[in-house]
Amino acid sequence: MSDVYAARRSRLLERCVTGGSEAALVTGPANVRYLAGGAPPGSVLLVGPGHDLLLCTVDPFADHSAGTGPAGRPAEDLRVQLLPSAEGDPAVAAAERAAGAGVETLAVEEHHLTVARHRAMRSVAPRLHLEDLGPAVEQQRIVKDGEEIAALRIAAEIADQALGELLESILVGRTERHLALELERRLVDHGAGGAAFPTSVGTGPHSGLAGHVPTDRRVEEGDFLSVCLGADYRGYHSEIARTFVIGTSPAEWQIELYDQVFAAQRAGREALAPGTPYREVDRAARRVLEAAGHGERVGPSIGHGVGLENGEDPRLAPSAMGKLDACVPVTVDPGVHLPGRGGVRIDDTLVVRPEADGGPELLTITTKELLAL
Amino acid sequence: MSDVYAARRSRLLERCVTGGSEAALVTGPANVRYLAGGAPPGSVLLVGPGHDLLLCTVDPFADHSAGTGPAGRPAEDLRVQLLPSAEGDPAVAAAERAAGAGVETLAVEEHHLTVARHRAMRSVAPRLHLEDLGPAVEQQRIVKDGEEIAALRIAAEIADQALGELLESILVGRTERHLALELERRLVDHGAGGAAFPTSVGTGPHSGLAGHVPTDRRVEEGDFLSVCLGADYRGYHSEIARTFVIGTSPAEWQIELYDQVFAAQRAGREALAPGTPYREVDRAARRVLEAAGHGERVGPSIGHGVGLENGEDPRLAPSAMGKLDACVPVTVDPGVHLPGRGGVRIDDTLVVRPEADGGPELLTITTKELLAL
């Protein structure tokens, strides 16, 4: 595995050199993890010149640190410098070191680095020219390799298992908060490092809301129940949402709304192919909901990339620029919420594949039929 | 309550005006919440000129948003501008608005704002001069008012309850992960919005480690078991750690180590008084552990402020500058870990009070006797 990280770093360095920088300082936590294999809290990665160096204030190999936890363990061949925490900011130490090694131009992640840290770096290394690396690492992360997709498959399977078990239990009378906590416990039971993001459970009027924070409302007969969860497996994050109806006979409006969101989600899934513009995927799903009169109720995007972060590039949104590639895992997650009544959200994690390989690979396989529980 | 937030904002604005800025842009999430009453994800607060304005991309009053969740609800009298999420960064919109209102100098939180956002603000408002506000809001937050201390008292009580219930259950054979999840469920059962930070449970060789990420190791006879948890109640975060011994008879070394850490923690608690330099509190606790030969094993600080964030100002550390005030809630949390054997951590949340008021108020009241479970 060490080779993988070294290859990622040399690809980044090549890009920097082309852009006129001899080295890059990576400070975004997921970016550090992607390139180093592990990222203890607060660590930064200096890529080039010569040996790459991970600078930390927490020992990534100590048994109490993030090394054995969800933050991962740095690649064996990577040099690690442990700074006494009193010595301050690893980014500043990295700037000093780069300047000392004769670097003239250092590329930094201006979208992660605060103004105060940037200034502190300039003040310890006044002759070092700081350039913007931009989202170069985020872009490198979009297309996943086999190991990454394997981790996402397991993360998706864990979420499917947790959800499946919940559906077998009695739901009426239980609160959103407790259902969410139980799902998170089950994720861990099935081998997740933790929840990929706070589990959302919405009942009745709260159903179908994106990012709904669970409350003490209890599940009642006749409710829609929508659940959105994901597992973190080796740092990789799956995402799934399903909506159910509680009781034996869904109301007319529930069946109709479910069918509309389902049709939109299917259209989005079917649009996933290498070469398809991001916004075409959004268009495919959004069009269905607009035709049903829900245009105003659809969120700003209908999906996003998943990987080491929960909502990473690409965004599947009307204004997004770019095209899908093979081996890009994304969500397709449209939802509609009718104020005061509730709503439907259906969300899958899929990997974009060429048609010759059978089209998009569905990772979250829980049924999308409207189940009455 | 609205008055409280308005008073906090006008105090900040006064400070800005003294420093030569006519307005301040607050972007640190806990700072926004402190001044606005609620901070939906990504929201920013423009304080002055004229009416203060909260700029959000998520509606803080919609029932699905953070408004009803742990992020709180903005004060009623505060003006709120909801930006379409496609319109981009609320900080950039705030810069445009400030420039449009005739502001010449805007104070910004350079320790929160990224270089990229700062540049985007300058590019939409090239004549607006951006000054550094520094940690002005963080400093304002150090001394708490009665409402804040009341919330912390409840947060501490909830953590005490969760911990007390765990101690009544069978522990041997259960994993660190499951104990941590159970504690977090109990926090919510007792009314917490959630855990204040990831609950840490360490058994045997993992005991006594600060921030240990729970593993699948099971509790065994003869183990030390150390637990660190906290509740989030209305945004305010308590913190408590206790260490127990599993089985009927602690070993000699366990009793000795426990006594040493307990003595250090007591010395730290007893040093809490208005006017005491932060580093004297650290010194008082650290001295005891140094005398016991554990100097190298003590962490970089022996306590920190608590409030809307978990580790906020002040830091009780050797190099910290400043003195305690009355009504400052802090932790006193020394610990010692012996590699391969385990260790002890004892942590309380207390509020600094003058001697005339009976000295420091202990919020986390779970016993600190060495319990054999």
Task: Give the uncertain stretches of chain A in residue-range form.
Answer: 63-69
What's the SSE pattern of chain A?
Answer: HEHEEEHEHEHHHEEEEEEHHEEEEEEE
CATH superfamily of the largest domain in chain A: Creatinase/methionine aminopeptidase superfamily
What is the number of domains of chain A?
Answer: 2
Overall, the morphology of chain A is: elongated
Query: What portion of residues of chain A is helical?
Result: 25-40%
> How do the strands of the widest beta sheet of chain A line up side by side?
4-3-2-1-5-6
Describe the structure.
2 copies of one chain form a homodimer. Chain A has 373 residues and is of the alpha+beta class. Chain A has 2 domains: 2-140, Creatine Amidinohydrolase, Chain A, domain 1; 143-362, Creatinase/methionine aminopeptidase superfamily (Creatine Amidinohydrolase, Alpha-Beta Complex). In chain A, 33% of the residues lie in helices and 20% in strands. Chain A contains 9 helices and 19 strands. Chain A has a 6-stranded mixed sheet with strand order 4-3-2-1-5-6. In chain A, strand 13 and strand 14 form a beta hairpin. The longest helix of chain A has 22 residues, at 146-167. The first copy, chain A, is elongated, with a radius of gyration of 23 Å. The two termini of chain A are 45 Å apart. The relative contact order of chain A is 0.11. Residues 63-69 of chain A have low confidence and may be disordered.
